[in-house]
Amino acid sequence: MKIPIKLKEELASDLAMQKCLLIDTGMCHGRVEWHHSEIIAGRQLQEKCFINGVCWYHHRGEGFDSFLLQHLAFEKMTPEEIEYIIKKYPRRNWKQDILFLKKRYGEEIQEAKQAQKMF
Predict the structure, then answer these.
(1) Do 49 and 80 contact (CB within 8 A), yes or no?
(2) Which of 34, 82, 101, 116 can bridge 71 by disulfide, Cβ–Cβ 3.0-4.6 Å?
(3) How far apart are CA 90 and CA 10, in angstroms?
(4) Is 0.85 topped by the overall pTM?
């Protein structure tokens, strides 16, 4: 499914979408592509908060980790955006998904940030 024109224009004007979300890893290469972090009933959610700019390596290459990209999408969302998503898509247990992702990646990301501060 194609991204609606209005949303596509909004994403194109966002500077954060022009670089890889995982640029801090130092493993990025290739052009930046837009990744849809969430799929419901086989369809990509056309919500700005679930579309991330990632390089080819993290989108189609060996660095691809769909759960990590989901986690990072939730990390950058505001509480208002999360409430909006919960109301708009009520059949999905979003709170359980967020808790799962925080348990899986929360500590790893905090440790990586601490290690970067040391250098």
Answers:
(1) no
(2) 101
(3) 26
(4) no
Q: Where are the beta strands (DSSP E) in 3-117?
A: 32-36, 39-40, 43-44, 51-55
What the block records as the tokens of 13 is 């004007």
**13-23 as b/e: b if 16+ CB within 10 A:** eeeebeebbbe
Nearest to 27 by CA among 69, 70, 68, 56: 56
- For the stretch 24-83, pLDDT in tens is 888 999 999 999 999 998 899 999 999 999 999 999 999 999 999 999 999 889 999 999
Q: Which two tokens stand for residue 104?
A: 């899986």
Q: Which residues contact 71 (CB under 8 A, 6 or more apart)?
A: 101, 102, 104, 105, 106, 109
Cα 117 versus chain centre, distance: 23
